[in-house]
Amino acid sequence: MKHRMIIFTMTYDVEKISNDQNEIRLRANYIKSVAPRWLVGTFGGCFSQTYMNIKSQYNIDAGVEYDIFPRDFQ
Which residues contact 12 (CB under 8 A, 6 or more apart)? Predict the structure, then answer.
């Protein structure tokens, strides 16, 4: 999980101008070997950012991998 907060304050004449930005990211991956050369995985995450007006964004992905070069775990 990653959290970032930026607070910027500036005074112009007598008026105070402030800019508060918050960002939160969360990522998760799960990868499993199903055969000697085959792997499958799922990837997910959520994101929120006040600067870009993104209240909440979610994503889920899947992947399959085939290793053309065999691994030798001796």
Answer: none
Residue 64 falls inside a structural domain: yes
Domain assignment of residue 13, yes or no: no
Residues in the chain: 74
Domain range for 66: 23-74
Is there a contact between 56 and 48 (Cβ–Cβ < 8 Å)? Answer: yes
Structure tokens at 39: 């792997």
Q: Does a structural domain hold residue 50?
A: yes
Instruction: Tell the residue number behind the tokens 């960002």, with chain if given.
Output: 23
Q: Is 5 domain-assigned?
A: no
Run of H or E including 68: none
* Segment 26-62, tens digit of pLDDT: 999 999 999 888 999 999 999 999 888 889 999 999 9
